Amino acid sequence: MSSPRSQALARAHATAPRSSSDTSARADAARSGDADALFGRDVFGLDAMRRRLPRDVYRTLEKTVREGTRLDPKIADVVANAMKDWAMERGATHYTHWFQPMTGLTAEKHDAFLSPAANGHGISEFSGKMLISGEPDASSFPSGGIRSTFEARGYTAWDPMSPAFIIDGPYGATLHIPTFFYSYSGEALDRKIPLVRSIEALSRQALRVLRLFGNSSATGVRPMVGPEQEYFLVDKNLAALRPDLMLAGRTLVGAPSPKGQEMEDHYFGAIPARVMSFMQDLENGLLALGIPAKTRHNEVAPGQFEIAPVYEDANLACDHNMLTMNMMRHLAGRHGFVCLLHEKPFAGVNGSGKHNNWSLCDSDGQNLLNPGSTPQDNAQFLVFLAAVLRAVHRHATALRLGAAGAGHARRLGANEAPPAILSVYLGEQLTAVLENIISGAHAATERAPVMEVGVSTLPPLPCDLSDRNRTSPFAFTGNKFEFRAVGSSQSVAPVNIALNAAVACALDDIATELEAALANGADLTAALQELLPRLFREHMPVVFNGNGYAAAWPEEAARRGLPNHRTTVDALERYTDPDVMDVFLRHGVLTEREMTARQEILLESYAKTVRIEGQILADMARGQILPPARAAQARAADVLLKTRAVTGEAACPQEEAQFNAIRAHADALQTGVTELESALAAAAQAPDALAQARAARDVVLPAMAVCRAHADALERLVDDGEWPLPKYAELLWAH
Predict the structure, then answer these.
(1) Strands 221-227, 356-362: parallel, antiparallel or unpaired by DSSP?
(2) Is the predicted pLDDT of residue 469 greater than 90, yes or no?
(3) Rounded (10°) CA dihedral 505, 355, 308, 464
(4) pLDDT band at residue 461, thresholds of 50, 70 and 90?
């Protein structure tokens, strides 16, 4: 009789690519190649508003959306009625205020449009009040002490800058309204409120600089973000036999596959047909939601893939990335997969990240981080570059906190992720420009070079200002910076909040100094000639173009004075340091109470995540690993006894070694599980969130590592047909 594992593996190999599960007009448009008609079809954006709203109402709302002006409540009823009609025409029966609590996920409570009427019939209604605000029960969401459990009020408020959208399903559709989430006393309980605050702070300070350069037309500056998203797909028949994958999102045990990523043949390889079916279904849904999915490809590890959008406003990009992750998890099941967004689901192969590509764009459409062909002559670019360097150098700990998480602690600093030391890669050409400015040396104006590839049919090709440095956590890539330290399961809001706030502080410093110089009679050129060399000299220690994986880099970074918060707990302990708090307090991005609450929430989340994983591992060891191991031990012992009974001699050395190895690892695993359970109990009793997080890191994780080492050894010793857990080779390659 075949085992559940062998049956699951057979089903995995027999699963064929399925055609699009969406039979709606959305899928029809995609199949017909009419991507233009498909894009934004399920979004109540400006185009839909223009067609359905009175002209004066539309203009008022458009001004709010484009410029961030205060929403006029007088237009709410008109907008709500138009939004309801639009949604119901597309099959929506319910609406929800869609928000992002501090769980790191999204949340929604659905309410029906239909309400009972006096005559025994029903009527569909959706008022301006229903659109603008809601009151979900907030008692069970993390608050970090902002409110007690018995104080349940939490409020949602419409964010008109992020358009409403429809999520369709087999039994109906729901109108989703992006909202802010805040407490009874007004504190932010989500990540959207501080994100928008940080965007506004950055815009105010950037405009001060633009005005100094004579730009009077720009009305604002917005950070633009394009978050790449890496993920794994695992056959759901196999994943169902792995409690660790289903409950923790990663494998807590598992010996390496004979073949992993060593041949480097999966990266950018041909996409398996079954995966392509999932990707196409996903992209159809994303395009209908107005999410500009642009790139798809195989990633480095087997079973690993990536999807990447083009740039958009940071607030919208964060919402869209949360939507993308939701849709990936949802659609994967339709194609027979489980989508893993954990940063390190498999030991020994690359984990998954989320490169946060960040730039600045003014309201006139100008990229402020575009150096042009002669960056040394582009004074405005150099000022904004100096601000970014100052932000990363002075506020590295705040930026490190944007990428802190329990899952990411297993990836950050490994071969597929940058080190925890925050440094900036500029490339040789741009670094030389800064060095010339510092030294006062005259550099001839040079345009971007071209390169000859040596193929006769190719013309000379333009050469970028810099190569890519995949070991750098913060790399300049031509007209933007790529923050490569974000984890794949994380919201990109925290890192963009920190980045926006830090750059706002740096721009504030620069604008204040330049304004004072001009007030004292200096002209802008003279003020810049005095300021820029000093700024670049001060912040050059954060510029590092070398190998961030090199063993010598941590020592060199320490000499430069760059902080190195290697573990998540190391970083979270610094959340309330005065210099870190100042980054967020200075421009009102977060209040002191909101910051201490976030520290508490993140420490609790880390400790709980590790404890849950530890309990899963203990259960798996006792219920799934030790039974077949002891059975194998008994069979090996029986072989030894039979050999002695038949021959009167001891068994051969190989049989003795097999028995001894199984017994030794099984005994050690049994002992290790007992010690792990004791560690879990002790960690749970620690007096506060910080102590619990430290205990999880220092006691529980080492105990888990001991158990895993013996479990993985037993996987190699127990007969393959008796091992109940799908192995790495099966999980990674069954697509």
Answers:
(1) antiparallel
(2) no
(3) 80
(4) very low
Alpha helices in 352-487 (DSSP H): 379-394, 396-401, 428-439
Considering only CA atoms, which of 113, 108, 109 is closest in space to residue 80?
113
Cα dihedral sign, 365-366-367-368: negative
Q: What does the pLDDT look like over 142-193, one tens digit per residue?
A: 888 876 656 667 889 999 999 999 999 887 899 999 999 998 888 999 999 9
Q: Measuring CA to CA, how many Å separate 513 from each of 209, 521, 522, 527, 532?
A: 11, 13, 11, 9, 11
Cα separation, 41 vs 62, in Å, equals: 19
- Which of 13-17, 334-338, 715-719 has the lowest average pLDDT? 13-17
- Let me know if 565 is exposed, middle or buried by CB neighbors in 10 A (0-12, 13-18, 19+): buried
Residue with the bigger pLDDT between 460 and 277: it is 277
Identity at 201, one-letter amino acid code = A
Torsion of Cα atoms, 388 then 390 then 394 then 400, to 10°: 20
pLDDT range class, residue 683, cuts 50, 70, 90: very high
Cα 61 to Cα 50: distance, rounded to the nearest angstrom: 10
Tokens 């620069």 belong to which residue? 510
pLDDT of residue 101: 93
Bridge partners, residue 96, by sequence = 110, 176
DSSP string covering 206-253: HHHHHHHTT--S---EEEEEEE-EEEEEEEHHHHTT-HHHHHHSS-SS
Q: What's the pLDDT score for residue 468?
A: 62
Task: Tell me which of 731 and 447 has the higher pLDDT.
Answer: 731
**Structural tokens at position 308:** 């990447």
Backbone angles phi, psi at 97, to 5 degrees: -85, 110
Model confidence at 514: pLDDT above 60: yes
Residues with Cβ within 8 Å of residue 464, at least 6 apart in sequence: 448, 478
**Inter-residue contact 355 to 211 (CB < 8 Å):** no
pLDDT for 451: 43
Phi and psi, residue 222, nearest 5°: -120, 135
Using alpha carbons only, give the angle 222, 224, 225 rounded to the nearest 5 degrees: 145
| Cα 444 versus chain centre, distance | 42
Measure Cα distances from 555 to 82, 537, 561, 650 in Å. 61, 21, 10, 56
Whose CA is closest to 576, among 584, 567, 568?
584
Q: DSSP class of residue 42? A: T
Q: For 631-672, how does the pLDDT look when each residue is reduced to its tens digit (9 = 90+)?
A: 999 999 888 888 777 776 666 788 888 999 999 999 999 999
Domains present along the chain, CATH in parentheses = 25-189 (3.10.20.70), 191-226+356-447+463-583 (no CATH), 229-352 (3.30.590.10), 604-733 (1.20.120.1560)
Q: What are phi and psi of 142, to 5 degrees?
A: -60, 135
Looking up tokens 């869209």, which residue turns up?
Answer: 320
Instruction: Give the helix ranges, DSSP H, for 621-700.
Output: 626-647, 653-684, 689-695
Q: Contact at 8 Å (CB) between 418 and 352?
A: no
Q: 449 falls in which pLDDT band (50, 70, 90)?
A: low
Map 306-350 to HEC letters.
Answer: EEEECCEEHHHHHHHHHHHHHHHHHHHHHCCEEEECCCCCCCCCC
Tell me how far apart the alpha carbons of residues 218 and 305 are, in angstroms, rounded to a whole number: 39
The whole-angstrom separation of Cα 290 and Cα 44 is 10
Confidence of residue 453 (pLDDT cuts 50, 70, 90): very low
User: What kind and span of H or E run contains 95?
Assistant: strand 92-98
Interval 101-142: pLDDT, tens? 999 999 999 999 988 877 777 788 899 999 999 887 767 888
Amino acid at 478: G
Q: Which of 88, 99, 173, 103 is nearest to 134 (CA)?
A: 99
